[in-house]
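User: Sequence in, structure out. Go.
Assistant: Echoing your sequence, followed by the structure tokens.
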Amino acid sequence: MTTRVLVVGHSAALSGAELFLAGMLEHSRVEATVLLLEDGPLADRLRGAGADVRVRALPEELADVTADGGGLRRGVTGFPRVVRDVAAVMRDVRPEVVYTNSAKAHVLAIPVARAWGLPSVLHAHVRADRDSFNAVNLRLVNVASGLATHVIANSEATRATLPQRVRDRSTVVYCPTEVRDVAPVTPIGDRLSIACVGRIAEWKGQRVAVEALRAVLAARGAGAAELHLYGGVAFEKDRAYERELLDLVGRHGLQDLVHLHGHVADVHTTMRSHDVVVHTSTKPEPFGQVVVEAMAAGVPVVAADTGGPAEIVEDGVTGLLYRTGDAAALGSALERLVDEPSLGSTLARNALVAVRCFSYETIVPEWERVLRSVADQPGRSVTRRRDA
């Protein structure tokens, strides 16, 4: 039995939550209509997969609102129009459950679903704390989670930031990855090839990777390692950080050892062309998709020790953890891989076993069960509201 779902997301950029959504819908049996509040690459990908995609662009004043509160006062004026748009799509689609996949979607769609008597699932891809939102936006997100019928969190670390009343009706569903039959990458050669994968943004910590490379070079010599940064700028506000990274590389004469490749489509193959993948977020990562992708690629991973990665990686068994934001500690972990030639292969081999619990075959049924169980909850005046 399929579940008829209205999915609401505000962004059409191919970032973490959006890539999650695309992968789930491509592997799932749910009957989904996707309402996006902007057009873009995600809409194109979902249309290419045969999905019913509706775009109702946010008014400019709302599109400009940021998680730190920028533009919020002006953005409020755009709420009524968006609420009307969301309600019109709900009336047309008549879903069994409304599912929201991003913070703006939570705030804009969950109250409408509640008013219509429709069951709703809020998927928390971002930690509900002051690292992620300013005080006003955090309050709005918490109100939305309080109105939702059920909440999915992408890790225990994310669930721990939800209000207690919400945690009591929440489920952790980890993010999936493609798991293939591969062997661990070959042992490290004369020059350590380091990959750092993720969109260019200050909190993603590419600067930490560059500083860790400097530490390795200082300890091992000028040709000991090289760093490859994969990921583009998804949001204009991150252009300045990209320039800062380039300035840092140039200032230290690392142009021949630090390579910025931009966005790559085939992450699996890209990762397997390197000796190690580093995860460098400077604040607790809600989940850490790059970490499970590296594990599934058979590449040893070194990850920051807070948030989701601390749940995913067993330190010294399936990867290495280092103190979040500490470039020297990351450098030391990388040197350990050089000093212990068999360590990387051992970590990767163990990770290939452990990562199977993050496969689409495991995760998709868990996600579908939550949607089905919420749609089946008694006591909702869904029929009356649908026919209003």
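User: And one key feature?
Assistant: The CA atoms of residues 78 and 185 lie 51 Å apart.
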